[in-house]
Design a protein that fits this description.
Elements: E1 2-8, H1 14-24, E2 28-31, H2 57-63, H3 69-76, E3 81-86, H4 89-100, H5 108-112, H6 115-137, E4 142-146, H7 147-152, H8 154-164, H9 188-191, H10 195-198, H11 209-212, H12 222-231, H13 234-239
Parallel strand pairs: 1-2, 1-3, 3-4
Length: 245
């Protein structure tokens, strides 16, 4: 069994990646919350009580029961694979604003002017991505999936990741055709439905070109760009091949 630990900020394709891996490869187990919450920094050491694996310590403790002997042994032997999803800091910011205003779109322009919120979101980007990149520096089983590359050529990105993880790349991959529900280590088997059952999740259209064409940059004027140059960790951005504009 190959164990793959996921990391990634919200809205960076973590559910997409999990779906593709589970559908296309055998003898793998994806860890979203086990070993730590997938949206949190990588811990220096594992809290096997699980209390830090979720914002709710009791829920985290329940999740810890999913940490089998096989997972613990693989961790002790440094055999855990790491799939790390990242997104351009500007896209990360706009994507978060859109999610926050999903039920009240009129608030979007108001939040664009919220300096405190922009500082908070970019500080989160800096912290998470610094931690996740550090994980890759001394670990040849960690792979960074740039969201933009995933949207541009999903099959190529999946094949590259598979090679790093010791999985045999395929000539063709099954890919989801619509939006996916949130999945975690407890419910993915119920929600990762296939074929005709999966149609009930094909309710939202998604324009991948929005990110590959960088159309989100239309929201940034010169003053915003100047401010973001000040708050984005340029060193981390460069390591992840993102330009600070």
């Amino acid at each position: 069994m190959i164990y793959i630990k996921q990391y990634g900020a919200k809205r960076t394709g973590t559910n997409f990646i999990r779906w593709v891996l589970e559908v296309n490869f055998l003898q793998i187990t994806i860890l979203s919350s086990v070993l730590g919450w997938k949206h949190a920094p990588h811990p220096e050491s594992i809290d096997w009580s699980g209390k830090s694996w979720d914002s709710d310590p009791e829920k985290g403790a329940r999740i810890s029961k999913l940490a089998t002997k096989g997972i613990k042994q693989a961790y002790a032997n440094n055999e855990i694979r790491y799939a790390i999803s990242v997104k351009n800091p500007y896209a990360f910011y706009i994507s978060n604003l859109k999610e926050r205003t999903r039920k009240s779109p009129k608030q979007f322009k108001k939040l664009l002017k919220d300096i405190k919120l922009s500082e908070q979101l970019i500080a989160e980007w800096n912290k998470l991505y610094r931690s996740w990149y550090a994980l890759t520096e001394n670990n040849n089983l960690a792979y960074i999936i740039r969201y933009e590359s995933l949207m541009k050529n999903s099959c190529k990105e999946i094949s590259m990741m598979a090679s790093v993880f010791g999985l045999k790349p395929l000539d063709e991959y099954r890919l989801p055709t619509g939006s996916l529900p949130a999945m975690n280590d407890n419910n993915w088997r119920q929600k990762m439905v296939l074929d005709s059952k999966y149609k009930r999740y094909r309710t939202k259209t998604f324009d991948a070109n929005y990110y590959t064409d960088e159309r989100y940059m239309d929201y940034f004027d010169d003053n915003m760009l100047k401010y973001f140059r000040y708050i984005i960790d340029a060193e981390v951005a460069a390591k992840l091949q993102y330009k600070v504009l």
